[in-house]
Every structure is written in structure tokens, then in C-alpha cells.
Amino acid sequence: MLATISAAIAPGIALLSYFYLKDKYQAEPIMMVSRSFVFGALLVFPIMVIQYAVQQEFEIGIFGQAFVISSMMEEFFKWFIVYYTAYQHVEFDEHYDGIIYGAAVSLGFASMENFIYLWINGLDSALLRALLPVSGHALFAVAMGYYMGKAKFTTSRKKRRRLLLQSIMAPIMLHGIYNWILLSGGSKWLWFMIPFMFLLWIISLRRVAKASISPPVCKQ
User: Fold this and answer.
1) CA gap 208, 220 in Å, rounded
2) How many CB atoms lie under 10 A from the CB of residue 219?
3) 142, 208 in Cβ contact below 8 A?
4) pTM value?
5) Confidence of residue 111 (pLDDT cuts 50, 70, 90)
6) CA dihedral 96, 29, 112, 114 (to 10 degrees)
7) 128: which of 43, 135, 158, 200 is 20 to 30 A away, CA to CA?
8) CA neighbours closer than 13 Å in the CB half-sphere of residue 189
9) 89: burial class by Cβ within 10 Å (0-12, 13-18, 19+)?
10) CA–CA dist 39, 105 (Å, integer)
11) pLDDT in tens, 41-58
12) Minimal CA–CA distance to 141: which of 87, 193, 99?
């Protein structure tokens, strides 16, 4: 059990530590970041129940499975938690904070999901899951947090609404494409997944670099 817990949580903690340490100005309170991680982990259970119920009641094709059952449900609820527990908090005082809190919630979710999978199926796939689903959740969170951080400090109400919409739609689309590759790629899915993840890492690291150099704006 200890080995399963370690293998499940270690990738998420490592990635969250990376994003946390990239903050060049004011480090976020570790308790708030930890709380966001725990909220993300607990979110797995109600989402599993909702997903199971929907799948039992409706016939869901590959598109619905990829973009609705998994992507839309998971990313919306993660966004909801970030928005109501971090975005409106006084400590959310710089552009980069969106990425930190988005990553904390998403990696908490990914770690709990990873633990359940490894507990049921064994540790043979631990490395592959660390490289794909766990890092995938982190990169979807970068897109969410990047736009949420920009929305927080724009003075235009219209632009703020547009950026908040982007902060939820971007991770949904990226997560949906990821799922689509897994579900429809057949035996050659890895040939499509590798370039997708490589491109996603490049874009995400650029967003991290850009957001991390933006200084704190204000305390609200």
C-alpha cells in the first residue's frame, strides 16, 4: 500500500513543487496551495459518481466520452474550485497565481485518480501514468490558470468575461483532444500522443515563463 501511495502521489507533488518554485515574486501560502491540492483530490469521488450515472442513463459515443463525460465534467469542476476558493482570495495577487492554484487542484485530482488506478491495476503502469495523465492534468491546468490570472487583473469587464471563458474552454478542449487520441487512436495512439504532449509542454512552459515574470498587481 505504501508503495502504491508513493508511486501515485510522487509525480503530482514533483510537478506542483516545480510550478510553485517558479514563482519569482511572492510565494503563495503553503497552506492555501495544500488546501487546493486536497480539494482537487476529494473532487475525484463526486465526479466518479456523476460520470457513472450519466454513462448508465445515456448512450455516449467516443466524442461524448472524450469531450463531455471526462473532459468537460472534470475541467469544469476543477475550474469551479479554483474560482471560488483561490481566484477571489486576497492572496491571489499576481498573474502567475492562477497557474499555481490551477495546478494544485488539478494535480490533487490527478494524484487521487492515479492512486485508485494503481491500487486496482498494480504498479506496472506507474511510469506511463506519471508521464501522461498526471502531467496532462498539470498542463491543462496551466492553460486554465494562465487565462484566469490574466482575467483577475484586467480592468475591462468585457475582456475579463472573455478571459474567464477561455480559462474554462482551453483545458476542456485540450483534455478532450487528449482523450480523443486515447479512445480513437487504436494501437498507434502513442504516435499521436507523443507530438501532442510535446507541443503542449512547449506551449505550457512558455505560458509559465510569461506569467511568472508579471509582478504582483494588488492586494484586494
Assistant:
1) 23
2) 9
3) yes
4) 0.93
5) very high
6) 50
7) 43
8) 12
9) middle
10) 6
11) 999 999 999 999 998 888
12) 99
* pLDDT band, very low/low/confident/very high, at 205 (cuts 50, 70, 90): very high
Residue type, 15: L
Domain limits, the chain: 2-212
How would you write the chain as a 3-class SS string?
A: CHHHHHHHHHHHHHHHHHHHHCCCCCCCCHHHHHHHHHHHHHHHHHHHHHHHHHHHHCCCCHHHHHHHHHHHHHHHHHHHHHHHHHHCCCCCCCCCHHHHHHHHHHHHHHHHHHHHHHHHHCHHHHHHHHHHHHHHHHHHHHHHHHHHHHHHCCCCHHHHHHHHHHHHHHHHHHHHHHHHHHHHCHHHHHHHHHHHHHHHHHHHHHHHHHHHCCCCCCCC
Cell of 158: 468585457
The C-alpha cell 490558470 sits at 145
The region that residue 186 occupies, defined by phi over 0 for left and psi between -120 and 50 for alpha, beta otherwise, is left
- For 2, residues 6+ apart whose C-beta sits below 8 A from its C-beta are none
Residue-wise pLDDT tens digits, 53-87: 998 888 888 899 999 999 999 999 999 999 999 99
Do the Cβ atoms of 219 and 93 come closer than 8 Å?
A: yes
